[in-house]
Amino acid sequence: MANELRLILGDQLNAAHSWFKEKSSNVTYVIAELHQEANYTTHHIQKISAFFAAMQAFASALEKAGHRVIYLSLDDTQNYTDLPALISFLITEHEIKTFSYQLPDEYRLREQLADYCKQLTIDSKAYDTEHFYLADNQLASYFKPGKKHRLEHFYRKMRAEFNVLMDDDGPLTGQWNFDSQNRNKFKASDLAEIPEPLVFANDVSDILKRIERHDIKTIGKAEKQLLWPVNRSQANALLAFFCKELLPKFGQFQDAMTGKLIEFGEDKGWSLYHSRLSFAINAKMISPQSVVNAAIDAFHHNGNIDIAQIEGFVRQILGWREFVRGIYWANMPHYAALNALDASLPLPEWFWTGNTKMRCLSHAVTQSLDFAYAHHIQRLMVTGNFCLIAGINPDQVDNWYLGIYIDAIEWVEMPNTRGMSQFADGGIVGSKAYAASGNYIKKMSDYCGDCHYKVTNTVGSDACPLNALYWHFMDKHKESFTNNPRTKMVLSNWLKKPESDRKEVLTRADFLLQNLDNL
């Protein structure tokens, strides 16, 4: 009979954890599909399928390595109201003397387990996940509650501390950041060169039946052959593919968008030069360190990868990913209720269908529904920007992002959405609200040429809705934005316009805001 029960959550599939260095008949691991986790928001069907498939694969790998594992499906856990109820049953059933778990990366789950352990009559232990660059107990020395932190300072500190792309005490090549070189738009001649994405064919038909049998509400397109990696081997294959085929042009085109690739017979527009490793990393199938090290090794050995490409990638993982985690834990739980701009409108119906005449939004939303994925600029500057300038309630925006994306776990989703995208945190994450008119979409994509609306028009029935909504947003918040050096000039130019012109734009915006479902 095992003396210790160790819980492994669905995003804790870390084979390199110190737990697994030794095998013991006194230790039993439990991995469980939970109704609690499948239902706390409305998830994309591919997201639930991917997590369950990865959990099954991890349990099987642990068993093959000689560990004692209990894997429980939705069928097995349906009679337990929540995770504590299940654990209590297992403790009694297996006469457990010690309950152990790795610290959850979501506040909700961490509080649930901490509260549960307080009332246990047996010993309990909480362990670090041993996944991130910064250990859990280091975060408080980097991040303070309510403080307006900035990525660039943190990123440089991390580069130096972990000796990543460094040359003695300074950055390799003498420059920290190449972001200004990583804002290229695709030309027509670039499109044919974009590689076919590496996808997998993981059979999740039984999982889909199980989800349907338990009436789990989901969104998005279901695929019996799941294209996402569900084990460490597949994740490493995707990493190797990225380093060889995609990294040479990743930085250059990391902000670019296109809707034209369907013309080549295969819509590669959802993948482009992005690694699509976020699900594998966030589920901890592979570590951020191994990803960064592999990319840097490719940079040193592949003459086609220049410093701007590798730096842009490293900044996302060593910089941004660690940064938003620190913001999350420094500011929860009150961060989840922040709404600095008092945004209150409901999310338009077409966020669940993609049925809008705005080409950029239609492509981003439809792609998200089809693949449970969109790259960072689609999330920030297309769907996110629309929600920001339309004044959508950040609670609804949070729930949509948390549910629809395969890589969305609250610690990484919320600071990106409520903070960076919606500016609902008042500037804790970003130094300004990332609001944009249709001109940004025109600059970074080819959507506008195929759109029902005219990006060059601000008023009139055929005018791009983003234009009037942008100026309405800036005008509405001019009192708080006027003193921000990053928005001061834009507002000054707006206020110099004749009052009649401004009124015409605001009237158009009011009409749009009253008809968001019909855009």
TrEMBL record:
<dbReference type="InterPro" id="IPR052551">
    <property type="entry name" value="UV-DNA_repair_photolyase"/>
</dbReference>
<dbReference type="InterPro" id="IPR007357">
    <property type="entry name" value="PhrB-like"/>
</dbReference>
<protein>
    <submittedName>
        <fullName>Deoxyribodipyrimidine photolyase</fullName>
    </submittedName>
</protein>
<keyword id="KW-0456">Lyase</keyword>
<dbReference type="GO" id="GO:0016829">
    <property type="term" value="F:lyase activity"/>
</dbReference>
<dbReference type="InterPro" id="IPR014729">
    <property type="entry name" value="Rossmann-like_a/b/a_fold"/>
</dbReference>
<dbReference type="Pfam" id="PF04244">
    <property type="entry name" value="DPRP"/>
</dbReference>
<dbReference type="InterPro" id="IPR036134">
    <property type="entry name" value="Crypto/Photolyase_FAD-like_sf"/>
</dbReference>
